[in-house]
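Colleagues,

Please find the record for the two-part complex below.
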Amino acid sequence: MAWQDYVHDMQRCTRCSYCKWIPYRYMQNTDFIQGCPSISRYLWHAYSASGKFNMAYSLLQERIEIDESFLEVLYKCQMDGSCDISCKVQQDLEPLQLMQELRIKCVEEGQLVPAHMMVIEGLRKEDNMMQSKKTDRARWAEGLNVKNLTEEKGEVVFHAGCRYSFDQELWPIARGGLELLQKAGVDVGIMGIDEACCGGRAYELGYAGELTKYAEHQMEAFRTAGVKTLVTPCADCYAAFSVLYDKIGKKMGIEVLHLVQYLDRLIKTGQLKLTKKVPLTVTYHDPCHLGRLGEPWVHWQGKETKVMGQMIVHDPPKKFRRGAGGIYEPPRDILKSIPGLNFVEMYRIREYAWCCGAGGGVIDAYPDFAAWTGNERLKEAGAVGAEAIISACGWCKRSFLDAAAESGDKTKVYDIVELLQMAV
Amino acid sequence: MKLTNEEYQALEAVVGPEYINQDPVIMDTYNQVWGNKFFFDEKHSVRPAAVLLPASTEEVAAAVKVCNKYGILFKAFSSGFEYLSLSLVHSKGILFDLRRMNRILEIDEKNMRAVVEPYVSVYKLQLEAAKKGLYTGRIGVGYSAGVIAAECCHHGCQHTMVFTSGYGRNTLGVEWVLPTGEVLELGTGETGSDLFSADGPGFSLRGILRGRTGANGGHGVVTKASIKLYPWYGPPAWQQKKQPGQPLSWGQLDAVPDGYKVFVPTFADLDNTLSASEDLCRAEILCAFGIGIIGTSPFSEGNDEEWAAMKAMVANIDPAGGFSMANSVVAVIGGQSAGELAYKEKCLRAITEKWGGRFAPAANEPRGLARAFADIMWSNGVNLRATGDFLPSSSSPDGSPAMLKDLALKEGEVKKRYEQAGSFLAMGSGTRMVSWRPEENLSIGAQGISTAQYDPYDPVSLKAARDFIDELFDPRSAFHHFGVPSRGGCLQIEPVTHIHQNWGPLYDNYDKWVQQIKKMLDPNTVGDWTAYIPPEYPEYAKDGEYVLPSYGKDEQL
């Protein structure tokens, strides 16, 4: 659907402001009840999902134009989907899809954010979102005895993703994840320098064509390699492969798993044994793309109709994505299985988790906002007594590390892989 | 109408450049809200000339003084979940978005009160008050509503009023920035150091401060208020849990909290239901009470699911099951001790028995009662989802149960015509529903409430909604003796509905008094009067003495 096809949603946003908060039923600690980083940081109503509905409706009615201010409001947003979840507790609306389509419109009209232009230029040239050289893509795996699936066959492809491939501070996580799979006897390999971006983040910036291009490329590459399962430690890549490709009609013909799902499976089947104690009090941060945005895509075609006089329903009934189908239990099950680990939950979890700050191109264009958002989460981890915050996404770890470096927050930041390495 | 550079700079000097905005992209998100289509024929009302985000009373007062100097209209709002709070008479008007004033300043356990700023939501206060064994009333419009908006500026009704009284009855003191920019502190006649008076804001100024339906931002800004709190018999904290694999809207309590009990008695017919309701309310045992509400059902996550559930319910209805929503009530009792709770339960059961009531198992299963408790004590919010909009249609008077029954049945007859024509949501049961919200154990009566759900973007449905309201709000109609049709000021967009102008002459010319108050408080007419009253009525088209409604944007809007 194009942006203007969401006119029904624009008209029917009531301005209840639920999109600004986590769902009220789940509020516990009044210091941590905000859901949307954008409105929380920038205050003007436009920065909320409701405000985006309003902007779109004004644009449709030619009351406003896309200008610098419009772009700033639209892009100072992690596209984390918190608003979408809270909105749908009360309404049948699609705020996140509208925001996505507005970004696509901006790109199509050449209304671009300079920082994103540079990232996309790098992507088109080097097949990654990190403005790095394609030839360096496999350096993270140097010295590991791992198959290159462009040269030999393997059951499972390990897709590191752009962040893990080029952010050297995070290389140990990608390496550790791969080693854990190997330790459990998994027939796993990598694509080496031929691994390419999934296209998911580019899509979130509004570059829809990049997603299509990379989806087609990946499908062909994996078909050629003959792999049966794709595993990625990156939540963004997971959402792109499993959700966005399906959304655009490019559903992968192979099993797509996030690394935590695979590791959880290995622990539960006894192929991976955790024997060493890890005496830490930790909390788990749900990456948006693994949680609410990782919920499978739901295809629906039909029409609005009315029953009981004026009640608006769909024919056939439309199943809205409300976040419940994200990946929430496997990472928690892993943490609970680590000896000596004390696991505590934060106040905003699962589909109503607060974002790390990195998403939607914010880390590239507005790093101060990304750090602010990350710090809000670190405060929450501290509030529940956690010594460390654990995530399952390179973008989250990067955002938390940057935030902590800026604020001096002492909370340790780990990926779940790092804890498993301590425990194995 | 844009502000001049001089005007803008004067306001900017007050709040700082970061907290004032006049960008059209931002401004057009401050004039779109449910209900606008009904009044203005557009989702947009007037675009404000600027929006300010003040952080303190001093900033609000200084900005108001600038408005007086330059003749700029102003209005303040908290959550903005109401068309009244965002509409402006004309475009040389600014809005104060009070979201930076969001602190609970004090919870005074001993005197059972809280002092809050405007952006404190009801549920936020509930969470903090419960830690000290205190409770603030449920707000009908939902969790996100501001405490001050409800208690000091606007009007509505709720299921806990039987225990916590109505909107406006809990205001103990205020800090009030008058339309002149002067700051008035009410609530203490003594030291001046504390916002507290046991009987409202000082010398019975409740009527001036808010009247019955609230001034809706028409005579200044309440920047702090001291609000009465009530006992909370439950735990200091609670958790509503999502059911595995289910959407968030299914989150619920495991059980009714210790300290409370919930009962859903069903009666044979409407008369027995209402008689039992009166006795229950007057027995002074209730913490919350609702007639004919579906408090025990899971809250469906969407219209499609709601529709499927309704069809299943109809298909599986058991005529011998003894449950009828229309003839059921939800009653919550609470107590400090097991003995108190047991006594109240005994009362409730005796009254139920007296009026031939029974407790249908389907309506009294434990998880359903836990859902009912959360809904009735904390609110699920307004269901605008079903059709896209709703009309708070009845005149919502404070009255006796008998009068409210009469009103509801008469109004129901009118509404039925529109339902049968397919213009409104029609449940199709043909059941006569009567609903009212008792206040203070019925000692000061109750408020009537009924709603009509319509689709504002369906021209036929929209026209029906306006015709329906015109019928009800015509002082020449049969409804004239039920009181001024305020519905909490919800339909009090004065340049459109002319409620005060039409109804004032029937009720002691009350509107003239309100106009005098407006003139006195706001000599320069800078407090936006869209949802209050103008100091002088402009000329509108008339049919004799009756001022015709003017839906759509006339020159003033």
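Confidence is low (pLDDT under 50) at residues 189-193 of chain B.

Comments are welcome before we finalize the supplementary table.
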